[in-house]
Design goal:
Layout: H1 16-25, H2 34-47, E1 53-57, H3 60-70, E2 78-82, H4 91-95, E3 99-103, H5 114-128, E4 134-136, H6 147-157, E5 162-163, E6 172-173, E7 176-177, E8 184-188, E9 201-205, H7 208-218, H8 241-251, H9 254-272, E10 278-280, E11 288-289, E12 295-299, H10 323-334, E13 340-341, E14 357-358, H11 362-369, E15 370-373, H12 381-394
Parallel strand pairs: 2-3, 2-4, 3-14, 5-8
Antiparallel strand pairs: 1-9, 6-7, 6-11, 8-9, 10-12, 12-15, 13-15
Bound molecules: pyridoxal-5'-phosphate.
Pyridoxal-5'-phosphate binds near residues 60, 86, 138 and 188.
Length: about 400
């Protein structure tokens, strides 16, 4: 039987266990220690940016939460959030009692539309009399957003940018490391991301002073007294020294992982080149150097897919990808290949039904016609050939 091919599985370098063993041997089995410090140093070095500093945390979601806390976002505030993304980009805004205002994407990078952002902010100021507290653009599937244009809009209104680069470790925009261009940048080391710590994240801070402030909030905002003294609400968000040991092992292969994801995307491009109506999403120009965390395709109107049996056990709504995408996902599943529709825009999520939104149709259209394909370090060139052949076989 054909093995199952997954979207993005974790892949260990073999060095992870050594760093974990070290932690046990020295009894650093706590959310601080030598692995945490060294992992942070290596991450900072990987950004190639002398100015920034990195705080290792328990998740990427925690990183977004603490960036908002550090920016002083409070109940009643508004934060501009890219709509076409995972819920974790917006949830921390709600944790703070603030309101996410969703902004749609432009079709080139699939990320936040700078012009729409400009109009949306102007409209929020007109309607509420208040300037939004932060802007959260995302580098979806690793593709950098139109950063120069977004930063220009942010500067025009004096609003700080939190780059949600949870999917974009190793992506560059005009030679700049994604996550180092805004005030803050987010990293995720969840099991399915570019590298993993089994679960974890990090916040890229603009300087050492901001890092100290973020560390303070990540460790229950404890004041420097002998006894426990608190003047602010904090969180328990530091990374464990064991997880950081996995992270140090992963840093020995991070460059190979990124290179592999890029190769996988190239193999899909080559394999699907002759198939009318199927487009592999690639960078609009050389300015956008994506890590291609997940390779994605869109189906044109002429593409018709043989319908397969509906997958058991999965629920359906009336807001779904089009029948050809659903049939393709089901057909791939039956051939042992995991795939997934693109992120459902957050402004279409029932939980965010009451949040303000500025939409132009782009993300809704992409959600209808797009599919993510297996891309991780365990996906070989032969696997991609098999996936391409399976896709071709499912077309009518
Ligand atoms: C994974 C992800 C996050 C959250 O990271 P976790 O480490 O899973 O908390 C945030 N934003 C985006 C776009 C993501 O893909």
């Amino acid at each position: 039987m054909q093995k199952r091919i997954y979207l993005c599985l974790a892949h260990m370098s073999g060095n992870e266990q050594r760093f974990i063993q070290e932690a046990f041997d020295t009894n650093w089995v706590v959310p601080l220690g030598p692995n945490v410090n060294e992992f942070e140093r290596e991450l900072k070095e990987y950004t190639g940016n002398e100015q920034v500093d990195v705080v290792a945390l328990s998740s990427g979601t925690a990183a977004i939460h603490l960036a908002l806390v550090a920016l002083g976002v409070k109940a009643g505030d508004e934060v501009m959030v890219q709509s076409f993304t995972f819920c974790a980009s917006a949830n921390p805004v709600v944790y703070l009692g603030a309101t996410p205002v969703f902004v749609d994407s432009e079709p080139d990078t699939w990320n936040m539309d700078p012009q729409l952002l400009d109009e949306a902010i102007a409209d929020r100021i007109r309607k509420t009399g208040k300037t939004p507290k932060a802007i959260i653009p995302v580098a979806l599937y690793g593709m950098p957003p139109q950063m120069d244009e977004l930063l220009e809009v942010a500067a025009k209104y004096g609003i700080p940018v939190i780059e949600d680069t949870a999917e974009a470790l190793g992506s560059y925009y005009k030679g700049r490391f994604c996550g180092t261009m805004g005030r803050f940048g987010v990293m995720s080391f969840n099991g399915n991301k570019m590298i993993t710590t089994s679960g974890g994240g990090a916040l890229i801070c603009p300087d050492a002073e901001t890092k100290r402030r973020v560390m303070h909030f990540a460790t229950q905002a404890r004041q420097p007294y002998l006894y426990y003294q608190h003047t602010e609400i904090g969180y328990n968000y530091r990374m464990s020294n064991i997880c950081a040991g996995i992270g140090r092992g992963q840093m020995t292969v991070v460059r190979e992982h990124v290179e592999h994801h890029r190769n996988v995307c190239r193999w899909y491009q080559e394999g699907l080149a002759g198939v009318p109506g199927i487009t592999v999403h690639v960078a609009p120009s050389e300015a956008y150097d994506s890590n291609y965390w997940l390779s994605t395709i869109t189906l044109g109107e002429q593409v018709k897919v043989r319908s397969a049996l509906q997958r058991n056990g999965l629920m359906r709504t009336d807001c779904e990808p089009n029948p050809n995408v659903m049939a393709l996902a089901e057909g791939l599943d039956q051939a042992g290949i995991e795939s997934r529709p693109l992120w459902k825009p957050l402004h279409l999520q029932p939980i965010f039904a009451d949040m303000p939104r500025y939409v132009n149709g782009t993300s809704e259209q992409l959600f209808r016609v797009g599919l993510c394909l297996p891309s991780g370090p365990m996906v070989s060139e032969e696997d991609v050939a098999y996936i391409v052949q399976t896709i071709k076989g499912l077309l009518i």
